[in-house]
Amino acid sequence: MLINQLKQTVDHDFSHLNRVKELVKQMASRQAEGIFGLAECNRRYLEMDRPQDPGSFAERALRELGVGWSVTGLESSDVPRQGATVVVSNHPFGGIEGLVLIALLRRLRQDVKVLANPFLWRIPELREVLIPIDPYNTKQSSRNNVSSLREAFRWLAGGGLLVVFPAGEVSHFHLRSNTVTDPVWQRGVGCLIAHSRADVVPVYFPGSNGPGFQMAGMLHPRLRTLLLARQLLNKRGQLLEMRIGHRITAHRLRQMGTPEAQLNYLRLRTYLLASKEEGKKRTKDSSHKLAAAAEAPLACPVPAFDLQMEVKSLPPECLMHESGSKQVFCITAEQAPCVLREIGRLRELTFRQHGEGTGRSLDLDRFDSHYQHLFLWETERQEILGAYRIGQVDRILYEQGLGGLYSSTLFKIKPRLFEELPAALEMGRSFVRPEYQKSFTPLLMLWQGIGRYLVRNPQYRVLFGPVSISRDYSDFSRQLMTRTLHEHLGLPGLSNYVAPRIPVNTRLPRVKGCRTELTRTFTRNIEMMSALVADVDADLNGVPVLIRQYLNLGGKILAFNLDPDFSHVIDGLIMVDLDRSEPKALARYMGKDGLAEFHASQGRAA
Question: Does the reported pTM lie above 0.90?
Answer without folding.
Answer: no
